[in-house]
Design a protein that fits this description.
Largest sheet: 6 strands, parallel
Strand content: 5-15%
Order of helices and strands: EHEHEHEHEHEHHHHH
Mean pLDDT: 87
Structural class: alpha/beta
Number of strands: 6
Number of helices: 10
Number of domains: 2
CATH topology of the largest domain: Rossmann fold
Helix content: 40-55%
Low-confidence stretches: 140-151
Strand order of the largest sheet: 2-1-3-4-5-6
Length: about 220
């Protein structure tokens, strides 16, 4: 496969040693080539401003000057065709939800093995989505396993749809109750009912369902 036909990847991480190791690893994958490396989002912006456009950006969440959040927001707004695969040491729901809501197509942890990195790149390119196996196993139930089931059969009330839209934001369940003019107990009931209906077990699972079905609202 010639260089021009390879999938072009940019790597943004402020840790030079890790960035260089990732570049070497990705360059060893047959279908991929490393287009450029960057220490932060500002360098990503500068490269794209020179019309050096990658197919995929492997993006660290925590970087100085312009972090992953600001960078993925900018990429999604200005270069929506560029697929972002978020890279982080953190597996907490808040970080994952925020990166996915801002436009990342996937989320992986820095401790994954080379084979999973290759799978993640393949999945983001071909299926437009990837979550680390560890994250999927830890906080999401049925996201991939139930992908083949007829989700159109799930009936959601208007209140449940409103709740899904609100949980896609960063506000707390208590604040959601205030916005919906219901008690915190009622919000808990909405959440638990949706866990059962949608076969998920966490807020991230609900967010992913909402995103897949156009219920998340604007980022």
């Amino acid at each position: 496969m010639s260089l021009s036909k390879k999938i072009q990847v940019a790597i943004a991480d402020d840790h030079t040693l890790l960035r260089k190791a990732l570049a070497k690893l990705i360059a060893s994958f047959d279908q991929y080539a490393v287009l450029f490396e960057a220490e932060n989002g500002k360098e990503i912006k500068a490269k794209l401003g020179q019309h050096i456009i990658p197919d995929v950006v492997l993006l660290d969440v925590n970087m100085p000057e312009m972090d992953g959040y600001e960078t993925v927001r900018w990429l999604y707004a200005n270069y929506p065709q560029v697929k972002v695969l978020a890279l982080s040491m953190y597996s907490d729901e808040k970080t994952i939800i925020k990166m996915l809501r801002l436009g990342a197509k996937g989320y992986i942890l820095k401790n994954i093995d080379p084979e999973e990195l290759k799978n993640a790149l393949d999945s983001v390119v071909q299926k437009n989505f990837y979550l680390s196996e560890y994250i999927s196993g830890k906080i999401i139930s049925g996201l991939h396993k139930d992908a083949g089931r007829d989700e159109e059969e799930v009936h959601l009330t208007d209140k449940e749809k409103e709740f899904l839209r609100l949980i896609c934001s960063e506000i707390t369940y208590k604040d959601i109750a205030v916005k919906m003019f219901v008690s915190p107990r009622t919000v808990d009931e909405y959440r638990n009912t949706l866990f059962e209906k949608l076969k998920v077990k966490s807020r991230v699972g609900l967010v992913m369902y909402a995103m897949r079905h156009g219920l998340a609202g604007e980022p």
